[in-house]
Amino acid sequence: MAIQESKLIICYIYRILMEESDEAHPLTAEDLSRRLKEDHRLTVDRRSIYNAIDTLTAAGVDIIKLKGSTHGCFIGSREFDLAELKMLVDAVQVSQGLSENKSGQLIEKLEHLTSRSQARQLQRQVLLSSRPKAKNENVFYAVDTIYTAIDRNRKISFQYAEWTPEKTFRLRKNGEIYIVSPYALIWDDENYYLVAWSDEHQEERHYRVDKMRHVECLEEERVRTEAFNPAAFEKKTFGMFSGEDAEVTLACDNHLAGVILDRFGSDIMLIPTPGQDSFHVRVPVTVSRQFFGWVTAIGSELRIIGPENVREAYRAYLEDILNHM
Fold first, then answer.
1. Which residues contact 213 (CB under 8 A, 6 or more apart)?
2. I want to staple 62 with a disulfide (CB 3.0 to 4.6 A). Which of 39, 77, 144, 300 is the partner?
3. Alpha helix locations (H) across the chain?
4. Quick one: pLDDT band at residue 28, thresholds 50, 70, 90?
């Protein structure tokens, strides 16, 4: 057998085992010989197949060989096991930041990381979700451009769009070009958000990536006002809406300890209220209607007790809602 043909046989057998074999579907030497003849017009004897399997094993491929009544071989450990792939497929499928077409492409690539038989289980999982998906096909590539700009310490440019009542996207500010210094990408409420410094407004702002169009990495160095802490930003920001930063004191019934720790992290101090089944906590927040909505959703067990200007703003928020009922 020619050396070139011998190398091809090893590659073909590896591909067949990766695509067709798993613990429930071992392949025998006869199976592999038949596939080589059907797919590649190669006539290969059993000895050559065994030698190819031994070569793959020596190269580090985990090939499990079965003996006895159920004989044959299959790929053992893979880069991802089936449970891990199911989780990845679920995450891709429900992501509103990815279009249905891009989700399908990614899931198809994930299916190639296991056998065809197990890949059918991933396809059945896809049917579990019917959530709305992004319409912007370019989110995937916009994210890559933003990461490249951050890595190269460069500014980016883009146009920003919004939905209209007619369910169409239109560019804001008549298609004006936004130029910002990207700090970080944050995944919130199943969407990508860019946190960036705006020279025009001289402040930190954030933008939904699926609403960004024609994202480009510029040659101009980005502005670095201070070290950006993504974790701290996420804790203080509600629904990725902007507002004034403030240190807010909250009074909470004791059963809300888990809610507060989940939201603001375990490093904050919960101070018991003497003689009462409650505690108070001081936390940094971005004061916005979304923060007030979060407080309202929890109910009377959580109260804003300071500062006074935030309390007054919350009262005005509630009164505005009542006045429009």
1. 136, 138, 158, 159, 160, 161, 171
2. 77
3. 3-20, 29-40, 46-58, 82-94, 100-111, 116-126, 139-152, 230-236, 257-264, 289-298, 308-323
4. very high
Q: What percent of the chain has pLDDT over 90?
A: 31
| Cβ-based neighbours of 320, under 8 Å, separated by 6 or more | none
Q: What is the pLDDT of residues 247-293, one digit of tens each?
A: 999 999 988 888 888 788 878 889 998 888 889 999 988 888 888 88
Residue 251: helix, strand or coil by DSSP? strand
Instruction: Give, in degrees to the nearest 5, the angle at Cα 18 between 144 and 66.
Output: 145
- Our CA angle for 186, 187, 188, nearest 5°, is 110
Please name the amino acid found at residue 136. N
Sequence letter at residue 115: S
Question: How far is residue 226's CA from residue 84's CA, in Å, rounded to a whole number?
Answer: 38
SS3 70: coil
Q: How far apart are CA 61 and CA 79, in angstroms?
A: 11
153 exposure class (CB count in 10 Å sphere: 0-12, 13-18, 19+): exposed
